[in-house]
Amino acid sequence: MENPYSPPQASVVPEATAQRTPRHYGGIRRLPYLGIMIGLSIFQNISLAVIASADRPDTTLIVAIFFMIVSFIPVYYRLKNIGMNPWWCLLMLVPCLNLLVGIRCLVFQEGYADTRKLDTAGRVITFIVLGLFVLVVISVVVSAMAS
After folding, report:
1. In terms of CB atoms within 10 Å, which of 2, 10, 105, 107 comes out highest?
2. Range of 71's domain?
3. What crossing angle do the helices spanning 120-146 and 97-107 adopt, rounded to 10°?
4. What pLDDT score does 57 carry?
5. C-beta of residue 24 within 8 angstroms of C-beta of residue 97
6. Across all residues in the chain, what is the average pLDDT?
7. Structural domains counted in the chain
8. pLDDT, position 25
9. Is 89 within the bounds of a domain?
10. What is the pLDDT of residues 13-67, one digit of tens each?
């Protein structure tokens, strides 16, 4: 008979031998997200060009709002894949914060919220984004000095 007052005995399993079950995050990964967002922007520009050529300026705002709402869907699922709360996609409505959310969706790999470490592709994309940002800043400064 066991002593009811004795402390429970824990089974000690070394962390090296303990296997972690991989977590399934759902959502969409980086490359499909990029393809969907590029496809949406191309389709939006074509739609707006067709509307502009048809002299229908009243429908331009409706089409722009439609594409803005539709673009929330891939951002929602991408944030879910990163491991973040997918409702952060509402920050896409806030200027400047939409850039931070968009860059996170582009750079972070699946499960980044748990690991907090970028993979190689994420580092490469980060350098490309930073390089483009530096080029934009330089072009703004040069155009401001020229005018």
Report:
1. 105
2. 30-142
3. 140
4. 76
5. no
6. 89
7. 1
8. 87
9. yes
10. 566 555 666 678 889 999 999 999 999 999 999 999 998 888 877 888 899 899 9
Decide if 55 is inside a domain.
yes
Cα–Cα distance for residue pair 90/97, rounded to 1 Å: 10
Let me know: does 108 contact 118? Beta carbons within 8 Å.
Answer: yes
Q: Which tokens belong to 59?
A: 């429908």
The tokens for 101 are 């959310």
Q: Does 62 fall in a domain? A: yes
Q: Which pair of structure tokens corresponds to residue 132?
A: 């483009």
77 domain residue, yes or no: yes
